[in-house]
Structure formats: structure tokens, C-alpha cells
Amino acid sequence: MIADWMKPAERLKAYTEGRPIDRLPCVPIVGNTAARVIGVKVSELRNNGRLLAKAQVAAYHRFGYDGIRIFTDLYAQAEAMGAQVRCPLDETAYLESPAISNIAQIDALRPVDPLKAGVLPEHLDAIARTLEAVGKEAPVTGALTAPFTNASFLIGTENLVRLTLKKPQAVHRLCEVSLETSLRYAEAMLRIGCAPSLTDPMSSSTLISPRQFREFSLPYLKRLIDSIHSHGKPITLHICGKTHPVWELMADTGADCLSIDNEASLSEAKAKVGNRVRLMGNVPPAAVMLQGSCDEVRSAVRECVSQAHNSPRGYIVASGCSLPTETPFANIDAMMNAVREIGYPVNLSGPVDGNAP
Amino acid sequence: MANLSNAEIFGRLSDAVVDMDEEITVRLAVQSIKLGIEAYETIDKGLVNGMMRAGDLFEKEEYFIPELLLCSDAMYAGLSELRPYLKKEAGAVKSRVVIGVIEGDTHDIGKNLVKIMLETSGFEVIDLGRDISPRSFTDEAARAGAQIIALSTLMTTTMDGMAEVIRILEHDKTRDLRRVIVGGSAVSSAFAKRIGADGYAPNASDAVRLVKGLTGGTPG
Question: Does B189 touch chain A (CB under 8 A)?
Fold first, then answer.
């Protein structure tokens, strides 16, 4: 297999400036799979900045991808604000119960100090250590849960989506306090030189309508992204599931790059917003990366590249969502190798299936 | 509202469900009882009709999950007024479905929607909740005499539990008594086939079609 001859930061800069590169940037979104790289339990990473950084740096060295994202689960901010999180020994943490159960309790919620609350200080420590280790050669981001999604963890998702229709003002109060925590956490990341990357699964059109996105997601995303931009950092926004009804609104948030789930079409996204934002995505994380063969990974990468490589603001090959923890290393290697084989300028003339060199 | 015909009552009830108006739904349900209309007919032609229309709007992407949840709140509010007046039909045993989210996963909005739509279609649904062990699914299905076990998961990490349900049924020699269906964004029809499940549905409306197909078309 062809070796890379550029470092990720160098490649990304050259790509953005339209200079020659060795291959397209490629980001298999590695989360808790990093635990497997250094042979520790998933739960050991969550509240241990040193180990989390060690795992993420080791995973980056192991696979050679183009973006490191410090991430263990979506609940760090909600937990810091009072939600209960359950941490199975060797699986991704999940929400046990929201911070509050009714709107009367919203005013008791307080934005938190990210240097003190929950696992946030350890995640910031992991970010600092990762930057120290590889920050000069590779982009490092910190996962930030977007205000609306975090609000859903504060009061419960079903509760929140009912309230969007029944008590919109209460939802806005909740999103405000959720935003304030996000702003503070983003600020803390930026102070140590790291750009946040935003995840907002609950703003998906699989769940809420475009009208609700406009009312409850867009304004808070916009304020958060404006604040991050004032520090001169670019930002990627990921929303899971169906997003085609809100691509234009996602671009309106000011995000520089939209990360698209495999339930959405890259070629349609390119046609609609490719001239406004960079796109990344959308190799299926479960059906292909977790369960597929190396050949299937290669075909899926080639399909994505053929759809989006000529997107006006650029394209980053990526998984459609965070990779499942048990994604085989061979499939992550196959994803990187497929991108190396295609090279740059993009050449898809290789054999259509199988026999990757 | 005293002079409304039965058909008008049903139409308004259906509209009230579609309009997510719990209060009017309850008022019309009470009205129908006072008028002596058969509770079953009011449920079927009013409440269920409204919920079906809401389901259609959901499929057309005019309604989303928040709207569907509020429609179902209205439907259930009306239902709880009417239920005491339902005549017990001798020998009419509904097909039963045991539903739940597999162990390790706590996302249950999708499962709740499937439950609502199955109940709307006349199935008796036993909801085990979320984070349910494979053994609980098979035990509860045996206890309830359920024909269908419906398994949901959003997370790829929990898919093994679905295969385990089928292994337990085979081990207990009860595989031919139950139909196992899977759903949720982590799974696919290829996955369903691989673990030997009887079907896969990508959304709540398809789940209803699937269950109807597997139970011979009628819930009752």
C-alpha cells in the first residue's frame, strides 16, 4: 500500500488552499475503539485524562487518520449539570436518568464550571495532553454536545419533544442554560488551543421537524458557533439520521463543515449546500465498518468519494457517525487504504470490487 | 354538540387526535358515551382513524415525532374514557406482541412509537421497557402466549442480544411458537436474515404491516 507522505495538518491546509496533496483527508470517527488500541476497558477512559489521551494518540498513530476527536460519550455536559450516567465496565456510557423531570425545575439548573464539574476537567486534560503529543501534526478537537441535544439529556428526550409543542418558552429557558454550559466548555477548550466539534443528534429530522430545528436548534447552534469563530477556529457540525430537510439551516448555523450520516445522501447534500460548507461522511458505521468485509469498506469509500469529491468547498472521507467500539481494526485500515489507493487528484479507475492492491 | 350525528362525532374525534387536542378528544369521547354510541365504534372510527391519519402525516414528513407523541397522548386520553364501556367479546383473543429495547440500550422513542401504532391497529402489546435481557423477552412471551417478539435497538453494541433471543427460543424448543422481529437504526434486513429473525421494519408503520403479515392479517 502507498504510504502517506504528508502529515494530517499539512494535508488539510494544502487541500483547503488548493495545493497538491497525497490523498483526500480521511476521518474514521474513532471513539471508544481507542480503548481497544491500548487494551483497556472502555470505562477506564471516561474519567482519566491521561489514559484517554494515551488511547486517542495511540489510535491516531495506529491508523494514521486525519482528525483526533476527544470523545467518550454524549453525556459529559449533562452529567456535570446533574444527569445520572451509567458506565458499564467495557461499553459506552449511557444516560440513566435526566437531571430534572419537569419544567418547574428548569430554573434550578446552573451552567457549570468545566474546570470543576463531572468528567469535564479530565476531558480537558486529555485534550491538552493530546495537543502536546501530536497537536503540531494533526487536528485535535474536543467533542461538544450541542445545546438542544444536551437539553434533551437534562429533561428527558420524550419530555423535551412534547414540550417543544406544548411549552416552547420552557424549552427556550432550558436551551439557554444548556447553551451557557456549552459556551463555557467550548471556551475552556479554546483556551488550551483546541477547536470543539459539535454533535447534535436530537436535532435530526428523524426526530424533530425543520420548523422545530429553526426554533430550538438553530439559534443556539449559531450563538455557540459565532463564539467559537471569534477565536478563529473552524467548526464541524454532526447530526445523525435524516438531515436533508435541514441542510440549509445547518449551513446557516455558520458551521464550516457538515458531517453527514449514512441515512442522508452526500450527492444531494453536495447539490444543496456544497457551495457553502465542506462535507464529510458517510461510510455506514454499523452495516459496513462494524459488520462488513474489507472489500465492502473499500466499495463504500469509493462510492462516497465518487459522490462528493468534487464538492465545491471540499470533502473529507469519514464514517457516517462515531464508529462502534468493536469495529475491526482491519476495516479501519481498509478505509484508510481505500483513500490512499484513490489518491489525489481522485482516481477511481481501480478494480470495482475486491483485490485492493 | 348535542345534535351531532355519529359520523360527525367520529370525524371530530379523528380531527381532535390529528390536531393533538387532548381536551377536545376527551370531551367528544364523553359525549359519545352519553349518546349511547358503541364504544368500540367510537374508538375505531374516531380515535384509531385519527391516529392512522397522524401516521400517514408522519410518513409524508409533515408530522415528526413530537406531533406523533402528542396525537398519541390525545388518543390514549380518549381511550381511557371509552375503555370501561367496551363490551367484552367472548372468545376474542387478540394477537399479542411482546416489545422492548434490548439489554444495554436505553433509547426507547422508536420502540414507543411502534407500540402506539401496534395498539392503534388492535394488537395487544406488552411493553417490557428498555434495557431488557434476552431471557426476559422469551419468558414474558411464554407467559403472555405472545406470537410476536419485537426487539428494538439503536446501538450497534447491543445487537448480539437480538441473536441471543433467537438462540434461547431454539434451545427451549419454542422457536416455532414465536415470530421474532427487529428494528432500530443499528439493524437492517440483512442483519435480521443473518440472525434468523422473521422480519425487519425500518419504521413504525412498516412494523405494523410486518406484524399483520406474520399474524395472518388480523389482530383479533
Answer: no
